[in-house]
Amino acid sequence: MRFKKLFASLASCLLFISSNSLTAFAEVTLPEGAVKGLPERLTAMDSGGNAVNSETGEYFFHVENMDYGVDYTKEIQLMNLRDDKAYHIYFYVEPLFKDGEIDLEKGCDCTFWLDGQEFYKGKVTGEPDSGYIDLRNEVYDCGLYDPGDSHTLKCSVIWNDLDVLVGADNGHRLVDIDGEHVLVGSQNAGYVEGEIEFKWIFYAAVDEDYVPPHTGLLAASSRSWLIAIAVLAVLTGGMTLLVLLKKKRKDAPHNCQKVTPDEG
């Protein structure tokens, strides 16, 4: 259903907005050793090529002109492109601002999955339904990423509650006009809107216990390595001996006698 006379926006924001701000939330306690943002070559990017800010760890989920009942999704690929270190990746949600006659904080449902496993369901601002982690006050561990590892974080947002109008005429309702559902006021006119802003913040912590695997010859066992060295030494010694013998023959003097026929 598309509302021609309704504008709704879901967005993340880099700035705090003081007016009509959301309820303050507790300070998030980060895991020990976690650093803000994502270190070099630790990447988080959606299918549209939009990446998490590596310095701040902030990511944008932006929807304009939302349609009621439409499921908006984002898939973010979390990757460790390094070859020397392993990391844990964490994230949480920071609500910033909401405004307008439509309370999208209450009107939208949000769901998160990691590699297809659901771990959160609740409001877009991180307040969970019963039984889920509170993403406003707790960080979610997106797993350990060894070099080359990759996982998929998916988010779904849907506006599915119309009973969230604030300060608007209760006569607002859905009507069918030219085959489209439109939200109008009691006099078949009116304009209402809603806006909400929040951000996802990603953090990372290096795994101090990770030991990079050896590659090539260094990956062989100590016994195999010693045998290889011994074989190489024998071959080198044999070739050296052959060269010396050949040189000795070449330098040796030749004993020759001149034979003349008998005169006679």
Provide an overview of this structure:
With 264 residues, this protein is mainly beta. It is 13% helix and 36% strand. It has 2 helices and 14 strands.
Q: Could you outline the blueprint of secondary structure elements for this entry?
A:
Layout: E1 6-11, E2 34-36, E3 42-46, E4 58-59, E5 63-64, E6 71-80, E7 87-100, H1 104-107, E8 108-114, E9 117-122, E10 140-145, E11 150-159, E12 173-177, E13 180-184, E14 192-206, H2 222-251
Parallel strand pairs: 1-14
Antiparallel strand pairs: 1-5, 2-14, 3-6, 4-14, 6-11, 7-10, 7-14, 8-9, 8-11, 12-13
Structural class: mainly beta
Could you list the spans in which at least 5 consecutive residues all have pLDDT below 50?
1-26
Number of strands: 14
Characterize the largest beta sheet: strand count, sense, and whether it forms a barrel.
Answer: 7 strands, mixed
Shape type: elongated
Terminal CA distance: 134 Å
Per DSSP, the total helix count is 2
Rg over alpha carbons: 35 Å
